[in-house]
Amino acid sequence: MELLADRRVELDARPVPAMLPVLEAVFIGHCPPDRRSARWDRLARDARLLAEIRDLGFRREVERLQDWADGAIPEAALDEDLKGLFGLPLPIYSLGQFQDLFPGVFERPTAYVSRLAGDRAWLPLAVQDFFESARPVPDGGKKLWVIRVRESAGRAAFLPRSGTDLLDTARLGAFDRALLIARAGLIALPDLERLQIPADLPDTPRVRLENPLPIFLPCGTVVDDTHRERRHGGEVFAKDPPLPPERVVVPIARALARHRPDMQCLLAVPFDADSSGETPRPSRAFLRSLSDGAGSGAAGESVGKLRHLQFLYPYLRGPDRRLGSPSGLIAGMQAEVSHFSGPWRSVAGRPLPGRCRPYPVMDQQAATRLREEPGLGILVSRRGRAELDDERLVVPALPGGTAAMLPPSRSRAEHLRSGEVMRFLGWLRRELQALGERLVFDIDPRDPRPAILLGDFLARLHRLGALRGRLPEQAYRLQQREEGESTLVFDIEIAPAYPIDRIRLTFVHDRHAGDSRVEVTDG
């Protein structure tokens, strides 16, 4: 007879059958080291996760893992990228599941080391922050996609590739693969933010001492006043200057505007490389580039695309990290608030979970200045808890209107520079796009069912408080247009629960072309 006490107890973190999350996120980052650090065998035996990955277009990778799990091929037949789970979007439902796929990832050092950020990857910390909750979230209420990239690929591994075809998944980079996830609304790049921290930026101001007066001492006298700094060879940090802002912001903004106008990228503003021994401050070149339209020549085109990025500052510091990205905590809070209150609700002013605090600490005057110009989401510390001061955007969220073309200081609609407005519009796009895909083969323009489905969808938004108005007819208007026998077009006008007059959406469904799209214009 075998006693339970004689057996080893091992935790088996497996995802539970999940509900449909309201807001999904994608994190791209490092899980050091590059070799033998991923438990691909655990993924190969999980049919449900493999089915989710296959649906994104990675059939070949999934079939190779399944062949190994069934004993059809040996382990040596799998390539190193697949064993390391590099470039493969992985659906993650809990921190335990992430640690099960990448054991010991919190303790392993990275190749890039900086004095301020240390030698630990930021992706694991961001995943931990994402699943932190201010209130209990049901199983499956939060869903995160993780894409691992190689450290040796540098900063280029995080950025979209120009001229790529999203249908050819084998040639896509990590950022482009994140765009394939239909229900994802957020992208975060925590380790790109870490690589943008200057390596030799000091953590604390150095104490400057006056030079002592020269005196004569006998030979052999040991002089050590216990406060002079001794530098060893291993402490000299390699010079690796951060990428200029136009090489980071412009490619991301263009890729999102072209392929996924419903998505937002959370990105922390880097520190200034020249701190002169003072407390780190935001990069002046980065802030200037945001104010000038991300350094692009066509001001109108550049300004319009900046709505797809939500810039954050400062960073996080806590008992478990020297420095970390704020993107994971903000993305997790946005997913949590979207689950309980709806994607049209802001996370600003709500106490953030966890024990981390903003670093460097900012006073209210500095926070207000950066919030107004160029338009950053500032983390502040209030009543012993971290909070997001405001979900601020650099430009208005609504496309096509004159408000998006004016500088922030002259905009006729300052309230449109809100991250929750952009998030709500993105969610509307995804929901209506999914509705169109369900109708693509079996709906005739004369069929009343699409109008009924859209009416029910808008009525539910009104009941939940996303639209203002005492009666449904005061909250939205739905009108069908005649565009031929194969095309279904609806003009939708809604009155959101924001200080906005209205938003006009056009739902277009072409039965013969097998295409559905949603167009958003300024009302």
Structure description:
This protein has 523 residues and is α/β, with parallel strands linked by helices. 28% of the residues lie in helices and 17% in strands. The protein contains 16 helices and 17 strands. Strands 2-5-1-6-7-8-12-13 form an eight-stranded mixed sheet, sandwiched between helices. Strand 16 and strand 17 (515-522) form a beta hairpin. Helix 2 runs antiparallel to helix 3 and helix 6 runs parallel beside helix 12. The longest helix is centred in the C-terminal third of the chain and has 20 residues, at 419-438. The chain is globular and about 105 Å long. The protein starts with 23 loop residues before the first strand and ends with a strand. Mean pLDDT is 83; it is low at 227-234, 294-301 and 401-412.
Q: Short description, anyone?
A:
The chain is built from 16 helices and 17 strands. It is α/β, with parallel strands linked by helices and 523 residues long.
Core attributes:
523 residues, alpha/beta, 8-stranded mixed sheet, 4-stranded antiparallel sheet, 17 strands, globular
Strands in their spatial order, largest beta sheet: 2-5-1-6-7-8-12-13
Q: Largest sheet, described in full?
A: 8 strands, mixed
Q: Which geometry do the CA atoms define?
A: globular
**Helical/strand content category:** alpha/beta
Mean pLDDT: 83
Number of helices: 16
Please outline the helices and strands:
Elements: E1 24-29, H1 40-44, H2 47-55, H3 59-69, H4 80-83, E2 90-92, H5 95-101, E3 109-114, E4 118-120, H6 123-130, E5 144-148, H7 174-178, E6 184-188, H8 190-195, H9 245-259, E7 264-268, H10 284-291, H11 299-305, E8 309-313, E9 315-318, E10 321-324, H12 327-340, E11 357-359, H13 364-372, E12 377-382, E13 385-388, H14 419-438, H15 449-464, H16 472-475, E14 476-481, E15 487-494, E16 503-510, E17 515-522
Parallel strand pairs: 1-5, 1-6, 6-7, 7-8, 8-12
Antiparallel strand pairs: 2-5, 3-4, 9-10, 9-11, 12-13, 14-15, 15-16, 16-17
Helix pairs in contact: 2-3, 6-12
